[in-house]
What we know:
By secondary structure, the chain is α/β, with parallel strands linked by helices. The protein contains eight helices and 14 strands.
Amino acid sequence: MKITFLGTGTSQGVPxxxxxxxxxxxxxxxxxxxxxxxxxxxxATPSLKGEDKGRNSPLGVGGKRFVIDTGPDFRQQMxxxxxxxxxxxxxxxxxxxxxxxxxxxxALNFIMKKSVNLYASEQTQQGIRSQFGYIWGNRDYPGLPExxxxxxxxxxxxxxxxxxxxxxxxxxxxxxFGFRIGNFTYITxxxxxxxxxxxxxxxxxxxxxxxxxxxxxxSHFTLDEAIAQINELKPKKAYLIHMSHQxxxxxxxxxxxxxxxxxxxxxxxxxx
Length: 272
Ligand SMILES: [Zn+2]
Ligand SMILES: [Zn+2]
Ligand SMILES: [Zn+2]
């Protein structure tokens, strides 16, 4: 399994338009954060003769590629990672910074010559339908994204043979889905994890968790709160995402973190 951090920034991204703080002015590429999203690729076992005629992609025959959320930077992220196919998109919730790039699914429709499967809760689908009303409105509108929604609930489901365990976390009053795939758990936009959901995370090799900044926030974990959750859940390694410019410079923050907790950055790849 290969994980690619497509974006690791909070809703405004980093740098923020017009901001002249030292983080937004930093020349370190790790301080440049597109809106939060991740890509999960499962490479199939290569065929015996090394032939890969079934699919013109580095995944190999039977490989799968999933993306969690399509934020406003989705197009740029797909271009940067040279993506030409996706098996499914999974949505965590319908906040704009996680869905705004949905229209750019069209490029994948054209190249794959088929619709793209989207997996989301009923509540998230309703939010997306109201934000992107034209997709379900006049079908004469040229160039609509071709998508199929699949409803997920808080129980295990599989997509093309790959098992996903949803983890229902709280984003102030809002329900947000995290996902566990094998030993990899991904949680964004949470400020609390119910006790019964924590059981699903235990045993993860890698936990990705949101940490907005050092000061308190009504709907996101702070850096200290995220560290406390990680210490309780005890993954081998944890990566923080959805960071604001207020968190500080990447290098300075990392210096003060325990060895098993790192700040994720855009373009970081993990192999599990
Ligand atoms: Zn967000
Ligand atoms: Zn700034
Ligand atoms: Zn949110």
